[in-house]
Amino acid sequence: xxxxxxxxxxxxxxxxxxxxxxxxxxxxxxxxxxxxxxxxxxxxxxxxxxxxxxxxxxxxxxxxxxxxxxxxxxxxxxxxxxxxxxxxxxxxxxxxxxxxxxxxxxxxxxxxxxxxxxxxxxxxxxxxxxxxxxxxxxxxxxxxxxxxxxxxxxxxxxxxxxxxxxxxxxxxxxxxxxxxxxxxxxxxxxxxxxxxxxxxxxxxxxxxxxxxxxxxxxxxxxxxxxxxxxxxxxxxxxxxxxxxxxxxxxxxxxxxxxxxxxxxxxxxxxxxxxxxxxxxxxxxxxxxxxxxxxxxxxxxxxxxxxxxxxxxxxxxxxxxxxxxxxxxxxxxxxxxxxxxxxxxxxxxxxxxxxxxxxxxxxxxxxxxxxxxxxxxxxxxxxxxxxxxxxxxxxxxxxxxxxxxxxxxxxxxxxxxxxxxxxxxxxxxxxxxxxxxxxxxxxxxxxxxxxxxxxxxxxxxxxxxxxxxxxxxxxxxxxxxxxxxxxxxxxxxxxxxxxxxx
Length: 501
Known about the structure:
Blueprint (H helix, E strand, L loop, with lengths): L2 H24 L15 H6 L1 H4 L3 E14 L2 E7 L4 E7 H4 L1 H6 L8 E10 L5 E12 L15 H6 L1 H7 L1 H23 L3 E2 L5 E2 L11 E4 L4 E5 L4 H9 L4 E9 L11 E10 L3 H20 L3 E4 L2 E4 L5 E4 H9 L8 H10 L10 H12 L8 E7 L15 E9 L2 E8 L4 H16 L10 H8 L5 E7 H9 L28
Parallel strand pairs: 3-5, 6-10, 14-15
Antiparallel strand pairs: 1-2, 1-4, 2-3, 4-5, 7-9, 8-9, 10-11, 11-18, 12-13, 15-16, 16-17, 17-18
């Protein structure tokens, strides 16, 4: 069917539904009542059949199948927990109420009261004694409501995706369980949940390009936060010892399978911890959250069962690069590192620093192989501007990143609390910004002033809720775990960037 024919058909369907809407109103029946009192949800009826057989129940939901057969009609309603069949008979409802069943369409919300029984095929069903239209749907559901697959429609009209695909609804239930489990884990260990500014006069806490906005009343430029780190650390200066935030962050960057400009992070900070204390905490958190979300401490990746109760590997970043590629990056020389990267076919930008080259080689040649949980430790200082210098290894910092299912899941430091060292690193990044690095950190004088008042030794961790959800649900695109992912506005002539590669 051509696009023009599809549009014509759509208009006809909407006109037909509006005609039915008018019939309800002409009959003196409000097609959009204010409320409905139900006694049970669908799952209650299905699970408690033995107790409810022959009893009257009131249920409500969206009509997702409708099969009239002369003087009887079968239909299914979908509520927040599942589907339930209903069976209406003309001789039980009466002529007029039964005739009005013909004014119903797929997508309409109805309330139904009747007795619970099982059909000859064994399906639990409600025998409709009376029903009430709760909301008339003026637009039809997708033609195959049970199989909406067009990604453009799924992401732009997520409500249709949720109606159409039970597995999608389950993904977001899992996501909710993950977030609840994270909060429960941290609350039980004495962490205080806090909120920090989304609008910030100076962005910081990560290397990223920010979104810029203007505050009219203050006549000042602000940034949407790229991270919560610097404000959370201020709270440790203020006397809190364990804080965390489930935070929405924003980075003005490209879109791919692992990146969305708007995403959810958890950041936490614990006084008197170092990165090894955080490592132990993070492992416990991942196991507990996975068990809460999936019912067991494991997940599947490409058909492989990943058991989180087995020992997790720990290896220095430079060591695993050497192990996987043969390249020795222990000498922090950019030109030497470039030659090594190019010798194994990794393209390096002309202005790339030593740290950037190390990161690019790792991302292309090592990361895809990290399926089992692996802590990579001891990163180059120049790509870790907020981490404490390694107590034993010159040129490195006390930092780890956790990788599993071939993606980075979390990033942690022994946090830098020396204000003079922090100032020197801020100023080095400010110089990089003057040379054109749009992701370079700014000098945050207020944060430096806070550090000068004293911050205790601290361990910090940030990890992405979206990526963790992807890992635990076996999904490969971040758009699948964000209810409303960032998309190009409709009507734009530019090509939508792919989230798949």
